Amino acid sequence: MLHGFIPPARYFAYLTWPEIAGLPERDHTVILQPVGAVEQHGPHLPLAVDAAIGAGVLGRALEKLDPQIPAYSLPPLYYGKSNEHSGFPGTITLTTTTLLALLAEIAESLYQAGFRKWVLVNAHGGQPQIMELAARDIRARHPDFWVFPLFVWNVPFDGAEALNARELSLGLHGGELETSLMMALLPEQVRIEKLTKEYPEGLPSADGLLSLEGKLPFAWLTRDLSRSGVIGDATGAARAKGERLLESLAQGWVQVITEVYQFQPPRPHEPN
After folding, report:
1. Residue 46 · residue 187 · CB < 8 Å
2. What is the largest CA-CA distance in the chain?
3. Does 272 reside within a domain?
4. Is this prediction's pTM over 0.85?
5. Among residues 2, 144, 190, 201, which is most buried (max CB within 10 A)?
6. Is residue 118 part of a domain?
């Protein structure tokens, strides 16, 4: 089934063109674009982690969403910019230029169809900046088109507070959170016997200003930090944790979609 985790009634590609033409408020309809990646996630997780998490969380949110809110998911973009994982077999990456062009052309088709609200539901931590650049360029081309470049993990959710301090700060890839969530979404694809723990050594001092991520990061590739491809500790993952994560992330996205639907454009202050 093409819709995967997305409820069939919310799957854009199942609509016909007359149905789209007949939508009563296309300018307020929320169109959602899951954006993932096909990239290594260590020996215990499949390449599809980011794509599965993006579509899985969004699908659960759309199940909970008020049926009176018009919102549809486009088919997921499975490929992303994943060159930080180059050197690990199986990773497939687009260039920044290609991904920007792809998003721009999808946006143009949506705009020509009369849609004016587009949410990028990005689930890959290596490309939030590309989503932001694409959104700004699209906005500059179309003054009445509003694009929301969002990261699936940026809504409030329950579960992170249970992580130990090291995992909370360094669990960047294939660790406890992603593995637990995959145990809830695609349990048959998690290699339980290969759960991995690996943290990098020789990082900048915690007392300094530089860090892997944050306000003052440095550019890195995964092979600089990890032999296994994992940056974090998956050994503490559990399906019950994943179910809790999925439920709370989905609830956060219900709120996001509702707010996008209700969104009214800001306007400059009128001088006295």
Report:
1. no
2. 69
3. no
4. yes
5. 190
6. yes
